[in-house]
């Protein structure tokens, strides 16, 4: 993780504060492993979805249901939030707490915007189209896969918000830095999962049918 | 040293509830796993009593289906897995020369979630009926249409919680083995048991999330009315079989690999020889794990996947015989030219080899799909997997427990009783299961609560039942042996077998809280043996004596698990009518579930907000504790 | 192939031989001392013989093409595996005896790292053995995976499994029956298998291995063939609920002429009870779910010619049955037992209780049982 700003690293903190202690290194490694498990979790959900995506019973099919503009906007928002999270980590490596907190805050806001769009989308289906978990095998698979992702986003938002609070109270230290770092890893992971969801669920559903 | 003050120490029960010491967690795993193993064993005996004679009515058909479901589920998830984790916790950090695991907090959390998941599952016996759709819980039999009690809900939710604990444990051991090895302990110098713990943990990481998803889908079908497995709405029951076995087959290797590790340690120690073909053992372990993920569909040959899939999965499955064969011959040639001592631990290891080979060869026979059309779902299969899991894993666990018991508890088990226990158990085992191969071949299908007379099944079933009770006697003798061992004073010699090869034998029994006063320097495979051969009595330290950092005890993992327990129980009863408006309101609106989750996530928040800086054992204290000179 | 020879000698020994052995065994039982010495031997022998099982039920005594081929594969794999076991056990026994630590032995044995040549050998040999088995396996996978549902010479049967009974319909002939699958010998029977509720598995050990009956969308095809006339036991092999153990059926292989006669008699108009009062009860209470001939409904098992079947409810064996079951009872008694309390005979089955739910009296049950017991088809 060398960045062009490496030279500006503050003298109080090592360049990569998240890896300065054994606890920090363990946390990062353990989190990579955890993400491996999460990948299998989402992989299984994707496999389930792909098996059942045409099993619409009496309910609407994917192409009848989805509206691409909203999900495209959501995709854009989440991708940008991944970028802001990268900037946050760069700020952390510079030892710049104020900048770090600002970028994290922006990430949280973008995450909230994404979540709002998703809730709006679900509400449209459920209230206007009367399209719920019980409609068909396809609807069950759709809500479970996308809902699992949404729950992950919500957890990420809460997590990063709490970390912002901790950064204010405890400052940027070798204890808080690994926490920020793994939360960023998590955020990138759910972003990548969303890219797959957008492709496999929405694009495939809308274009291929 | 701001944190040099000693931390608040708990005593008695609180000590056990809050401990983050891997050696104590090992004991917790052993006690809990032993308890569930006992329950599963009693269920097994009830099954065998029912089958002792044709048209028996010791239990009803429904009770029988509950017994077989709970026997399988309990033994696999709650019996043998935790005992494996007990040995991994007790031994792996010592074998790699570590003071602790990578995540002591998670280690404790893993144990408590496993325990509360297991308790939830077993609560079903007293809350309306246990799950009755088999440990595989194939849909639609396990759907709410055909399994109308809450039994299967206890199964799905209990296993999700217990599985979470296993997953956490797996991640912890992976990280521990990657980062916490002592200086000089390269991967290719790790003891074989540590290697198998490592590979098993990796398999847990990639297998358990799959079954978690499967269980979530089944829960959603049953409680939220989803349609994953409901054909009328487009669902697909065969999907469940795929998801279950994508987890289920690796699970078999998750179980057996640690047993391979134990046998490697025991055989090598009691032959006074290094493990023959160490590198090929490592290679074989990894290959078995890899192939283990490629063969799940051999459980589904009769499902109707078509000849191409059946042929491919047949061949893939047969290939596993090759790395397994490598292991068997390596053990035999470890003993070749050695000086073998047959104490109880090594007797179990010696019993393991032929017994496991018998389970292995029937495995290759089952891999041949057209022949499997005949074996599948008969007593032949029951015999096969009991040869692998009991004849393989359980014998391995007994070997491991006898071998490491002095290290864990500072007391040795009695050899006379140990030998009695070995002979009753292994004779009982073969009596129970050998004959079941034939029962299957002459037409007895599995999971039948009884059978008509005059089919030629009667005598063989009776013999099988007698054998099962003999195995029960073996286990009781083991328990007596344990009870007697606690009459000895604590503190046998650290290297109690005199021929210990690995690092755990270089420290006192039981080890002090911090394991190693000084982190040892590892200079080769079988590090402690190497030092002894060089004439040293102890390991060469890699660092000067200094203060040792220790994690603080905490009650949070326990509380988090209680939260999950409450949430699971609440979710299960969402659609029930209690005849009480308050209860209906609390359960029907997910309020109980919410409270449970709030407890869990609230504890997580506390853990994040209040940093645990741990505490230090000072050098003066080290000397006080009378560490071996 | 010593394994095969031994196996054939035991399992395919002519039946009269076997009986002789048993009789001889019994006559020796009288003097107590001889018995004491010979008991283990005889128990072993009896076990070995009974280990081959019944001709109409055992995988080891196949009566049809598919089961024979499967047994061939089983024998091939057993032979290979016994050879492997002999080698492993032999080496193990040798090292255990030869390399025990002797008292007072203090020298340290040579620490051997490994042996490249040996390790190559025990990787290569299993690989070769596995390949032999793999070739035989692949051949048979495709042979038994063949779908004969479009073969003109094959008899097509649609198998539908229910909790806890089997429905067999013959689309070419337009007839449907239950519990006893009637087939002509020497012909391929093309099966199409599905379930009406939970998963079951169709298994006739002496004719062919099992195939699961899945839900719509994943329907399976399989085939079997019986060489000789006879009655073969079939079982459900997938856990399906409380009476999974009792979800049996029979396959009755008859000559081709008999088979044709059976189809004709199945198509004949229904025979109803002679007593009009009984006929009324039977129509109102039984035919709402069951069918006889051209009358009634498809919910329960078809009852046409039920008196001539091998069993009532698949587990109450009829002594009149052509399979001559040991421990069978008169079909009427079985019928009364079933109709008096179906839940007791087959826990969890879906039939309403005739007495409690349908209000039948003992007399009515007896009359209906008599009628059904007498309802036989001639073929």
TrEMBL record, chain A:
Subcellular location field: Cell membrane
Keyword terms of this UniProt record: Cell membrane, Membrane, Transmembrane, Transmembrane helix
Gene3D superfamilies in alphabetical order: Cytochrome c oxidase, subunit III, four-helix bundle (1.20.120.80)
Membrane topology: Multi-pass membrane protein
SUPFAM superfamilies the UniProt entry points to: Cytochrome c oxidase subunit III-like (SSF81452)
All residue ranges annotated as the Heme-copper oxidase subunit III family profile domain in the record: 29-206
Entry keyword Transmembrane: yes
InterPro entries: Cyt_c/ubiquinol_Oxase_su3, Cyt_c_oxidase-like_su3, Cyt_c_oxidase_su3-like_sf, Cyt_c_oxidase_su3_a-hlx, Ubiquinol_oxase_su3_dom
Domain of life per record: Bacteria
Transmembrane residue ranges: 29-50, 70-89, 101-120, 140-164, 185-205
Principal cellular location given in the protein's record: membrane
Homology family: Belongs to the cytochrome c oxidase subunit 3 family.
Name of the molecule in the record: Cytochrome c oxidase subunit 3
Native species: Paenibacillus vini
Lineage: Bacteria, Bacillati, Bacillota, Bacilli, Bacillales
From TrEMBL, chain B:
Pathway: Energy metabolism; oxidative phosphorylation
Membrane topology reported for the UniProt record: Multi-pass membrane protein
Keywords from the named record: Cell membrane, Copper, Electron transport, Heme, Iron, Membrane, Metal-binding, Respiratory chain, Translocase, Transmembrane, Transmembrane helix, Transport
Transmembrane segments: 26-47, 67-92, 104-127, 154-180, 192-218, 238-263, 275-296, 308-333, 345-367, 379-401, 422-442, 462-484, 555-573, 585-606
Gene3D superfamilies, per the entry: 1.10.287.70, Cytochrome c oxidase-like, subunit I domain
CDD domains the UniProt entry points to: Ubiquinol_Oxidase_I
Location in or out of the cell: Cell membrane; Membrane
Entry protein name: Cytochrome c oxidase subunit 1
Organism the protein comes from: Paenibacillus vini
Record lineage: Bacteria, Bacillati, Bacillota, Bacilli, Bacillales
Gene behind this protein: ctaD
């Amino acid at each position: 993780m060398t960045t062009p700003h490496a030279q500006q690293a503050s003298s109080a903190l090592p360049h990569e504060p998240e890896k300065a202690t054994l606890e920090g290194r363990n946390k990062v490694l353990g989190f990579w492993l955890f993400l491996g498990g999460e990948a299998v979790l989402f992989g299984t959900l994707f496999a389930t979805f792909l098996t059942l995506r045409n099993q619409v019973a009496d309910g609407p099919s994917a192409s009848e249901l989805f509206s691409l503009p909203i999900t495209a906007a959501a995709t854009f928002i989440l991708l940008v939030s991944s970028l802001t999270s990268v900037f946050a980590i760069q700020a952390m490596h510079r030892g710049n707490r104020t900048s770090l907190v600002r970028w994290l805050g922006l990430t949280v806001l973008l995450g909230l915007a994404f979540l709002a769009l998703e809730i709006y989308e679900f509400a449209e289906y459920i209230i206007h189209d009367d399209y719920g978990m019980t409609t068909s095998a396809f609807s069950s698979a759709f809500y479970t896969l996308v809902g699992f992702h949404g729950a992950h986003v919500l957890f990420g938002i809460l997590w990063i918000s709490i970390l912002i609070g901790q950064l204010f109270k405890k400052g940027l230290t070798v204890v808080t830095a690994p926490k920020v770092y793994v939360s960023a890893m998590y955020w990138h992971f759910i972003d990548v999962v969303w890219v797959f969801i957008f492709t496999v669920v929405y694009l495939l559903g809308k274009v291929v049918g | 040293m701001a944190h040099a003050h000693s931390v608040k120490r708990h005593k008695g029960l609180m000590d056990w509830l809050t401990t983050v010491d891997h050696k104590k967690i090992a004991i917790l795993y052993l006690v809990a796993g032993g308890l569930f193993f006992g329950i599963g064993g009693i269920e097994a005996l009830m099954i065998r009593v029912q089958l002792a004679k044709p048209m028996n009515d010791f239990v009803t058909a429904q009770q029988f289906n509950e017994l077989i479901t709970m026997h399988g589920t309990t033994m696999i998830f709650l019996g043998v897995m935790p005992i494996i984790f007990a040995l991994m916790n007790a031994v792996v950090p010592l074998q790699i020369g570590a003071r602790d695991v990578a995540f002591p907090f998670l280690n404790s959390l893993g144990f408590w979630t496993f325990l509360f998941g297991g308790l939830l599952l077993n609560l079903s016996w007293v809350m309306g009926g246990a799950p009755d759709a088999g440990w595989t819980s194939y849909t639609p039999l396990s759907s709410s249409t055909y399994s109308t009690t809450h039994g299967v809900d206890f199964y799905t939710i209990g296993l999700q919680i217990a599985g979470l604990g296993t997953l956490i444990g797996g991640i912890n051991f992976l990280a521990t083995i990657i980062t916490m090895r002592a200086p000089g302990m390269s991967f290719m110098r790790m003891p074989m048991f540590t290697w198998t713990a490592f590979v098993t943990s990796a398999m847990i990481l990639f297998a358990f999330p799959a079954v978690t998803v499967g269980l979530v889908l089944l829960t959603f079908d049953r409680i939220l009315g989803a349609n994953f497995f409901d054909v009328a709405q487009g669902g697909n029951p065969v999907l469940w079989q795929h998801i279950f076995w994508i987890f289920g087959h690796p699970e078999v290797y998750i179980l057996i690999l640690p047993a391979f590790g134990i046998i490697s340690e025991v055989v090598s120690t009691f032959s006074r020889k290094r493990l023959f073909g160490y590198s090929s053992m490592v290679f074989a372990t990894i290959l078995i794990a890899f192939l283990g993920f490629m063969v799940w569909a051999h459980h589904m040959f009769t499902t109707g996947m078509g000849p191409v899939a059946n042929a491919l999965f047949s061949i893939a499955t047969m290939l596993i015989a090759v790395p397994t064969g490598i292991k068997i011959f390596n053990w035999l040639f470890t003993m070749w030219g050695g000086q073998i001592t047959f104490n109880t631990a090594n007797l179990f290891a010696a019993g393991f080899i032929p017994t496991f080979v018998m389970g292995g060869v029937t495995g290759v026979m089952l891999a041949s799909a057209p022949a499997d059309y005949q074996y599948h779902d008969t007593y032949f299969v029951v015999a096969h997997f009991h040869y692998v899991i009991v004849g393989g894993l359980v014998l391995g666990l007994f070997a491991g427990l006898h071998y490491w018991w002095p290290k864990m508890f500072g007391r040795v088990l009695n050899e006379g009783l140990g030998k009695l226990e070995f002979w009753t158990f292994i004779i009982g085992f073969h009596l129970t299961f050998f004959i079941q191969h034939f029962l299957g071949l002459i037409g007895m299908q599995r999971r039948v609560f009884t059978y008509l007379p005059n089919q030629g099944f009667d005598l063989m079933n009776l013999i099988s039942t007698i054998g099962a009770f003999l195995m029960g006697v073996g286990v009781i003798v083991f328990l007596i042996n344990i009870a007697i061992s606690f009459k000895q004073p604590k503190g046998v010699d650290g290297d109690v077998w005199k021929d210990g090869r690995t690092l755990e034998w270089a420290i006192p029994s039981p080890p002090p809280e911090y394991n190693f006063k000084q982190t040892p320097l590892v200079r080769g495979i079988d590090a402690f043996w190497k030092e002894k051969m060089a004439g040293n009595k102890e390991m060469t330290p890699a660092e000067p004596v200094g203060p040792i950092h220790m994690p603080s005890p905490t009650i949070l993992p326990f509380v988090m698990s209680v939260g999950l327990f409450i949430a699971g129980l609440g979710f299960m009863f969402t659609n029930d009518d209690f005849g009480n408006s308050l209860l209906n309101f609390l359960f029907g609106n997910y309020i109980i579930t919410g409270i449970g989750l709030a407890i869990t996530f609230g504890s997580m928040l506390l853990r994040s907000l209040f940093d645990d800086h741990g505490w230090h054992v000072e050098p003066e204290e080290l000397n006080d504790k009378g560490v071996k000179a | 192939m010593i394994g095969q020879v031994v196996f054939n000698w035991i399992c395919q020994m002519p039946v009269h031989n076997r009986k002789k052995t048993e009789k001889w065994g019994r006559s020796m039982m009288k003097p107590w001392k001889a018995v004491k010495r010979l008991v283990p031997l005889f128990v072993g022998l009896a076990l070995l013989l009974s280990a081959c099982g019944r001709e109409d039920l055992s995988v080891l005594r196949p009566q049809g093409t598919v089961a024979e081929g499967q047994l061939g594969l089983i024998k091939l794999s057993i032979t290979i595996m016994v050879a492997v076991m002999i080698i492993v056990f032999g080496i193990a026994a040798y090292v255990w005896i030869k390399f025990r630590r002797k008292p007072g032995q203090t020298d340290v044995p040579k620490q051997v790292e490994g042996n490249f040549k040996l390790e190559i050998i025990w990787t290569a040999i299993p690989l070769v053995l596995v390949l032999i088995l793999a070739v035989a396996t692949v051949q048979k996978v495709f042979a038994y995976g063949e779908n004969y549902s479009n073969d003109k010479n094959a008899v097509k049967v649609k198998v539908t499994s229910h909790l806890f009974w089997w429905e067999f319909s013959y689309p070419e002939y337009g007839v449907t029956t239950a519990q006893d699958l009637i087939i002509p010998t020497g012909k391929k029977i093309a099966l199409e298998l599905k379930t009406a509720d939970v998963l079951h598995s169709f298994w006739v050990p002496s004719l062919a291995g099992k195939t699961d009956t899945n839900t719509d969308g994943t329907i399976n095809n399989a085939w079997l063939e019986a060489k000789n006339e006879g009655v073969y036991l079939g079982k459900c092999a997938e856990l399906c609920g409380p009476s999974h153990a009792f979800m049996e059926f029979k396959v009755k292989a008859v000559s081709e002429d008999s088979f044709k006669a059976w189809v004709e008699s199945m198509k004949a108009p229904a025979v109803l009870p002679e007593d009009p009062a009984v006929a009324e009860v039977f129509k109102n209470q039984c035919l709402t779910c069951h069918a006889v001939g051209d009358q009634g409904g498809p919910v329960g098992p078809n009852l046409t010619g039920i008196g001539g079947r091998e069993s009532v409810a698949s587990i109450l064996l009829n002594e009149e049955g052509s399979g001559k079951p040991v421990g069978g009872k008169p079909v009427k008694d079985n019928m009364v037992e079933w109709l008096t309390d179906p839940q007791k005979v087959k826990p969890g089955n879906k039939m309403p209780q005739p007495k409690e739910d349908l209000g039948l009296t003992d007399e009515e049950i007896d009359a209906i049982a008599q009628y059904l017991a007498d309802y036989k088809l001639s073929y």
